[in-house]
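Action item from last meeting closed. Structure (154 res):
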């Protein structure tokens, strides 16, 4: 198997777990490829912007446990597992804080900003490939009205 086939196989697996990104809740195929194609010896930082729903939207609940509550409740369920898992794969949070507003540029409306740093792309991918993380990701989707995640080197 060549490198491109290996990347496409991993992208297929990630999309199978998280969806195709069409709903804005997960990376698209090209966004996964961007992470998989970057040099693995460069640290990666993700700047996450979250707008939480007033009421979590679980829809057909894959866990079968009938969760409900606010977007914040759902996000807290996600964070309970995602925060320690990020540390387990070698990442760390540089900041998790309420969004106060835009200082320069177009005004935006967010509730929370989280900046996570990883030693390399392999560490970031290990988070998304972790079975415990995958099992709670649906809480993030239920919690977020919308989100934006910016990738930075370093």
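Sequence:
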């Amino acid at each position: 198997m060549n490198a491109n086939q290996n990347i496409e196989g991993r992208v297929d697996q990630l999309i199978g777990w998280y969806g195709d990104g069409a709903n804005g809740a997960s990376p698209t195929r090209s966004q996964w490829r961007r992470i998989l194609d970057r040099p693995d010896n460069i640290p990666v930082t993700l700047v996450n912007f979250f707008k939480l729903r007033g009421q979590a939207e679980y829809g057909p609940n894959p866990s079968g446990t009938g969760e409900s509550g606010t977007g914040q409740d759902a996000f807290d369920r996600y964070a309970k597992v995602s925060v320690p898992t990020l540390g387990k794969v070698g990442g760390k949070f540089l900041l998790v804080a309420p969004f106060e507003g835009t200082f320069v540029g177009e005004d935006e409306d967010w509730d929370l900003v989280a900046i996570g740093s990883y030693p390399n792309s392999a560490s970031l991918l290990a988070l998304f490939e972790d079975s415990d993380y995958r099992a709670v990701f649906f809480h993030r989707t239920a919690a977020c009205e919308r989100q934006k995640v910016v990738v930075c080197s370093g």
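Note appended to the action item: The chain is about 40% helix and 20% strand.
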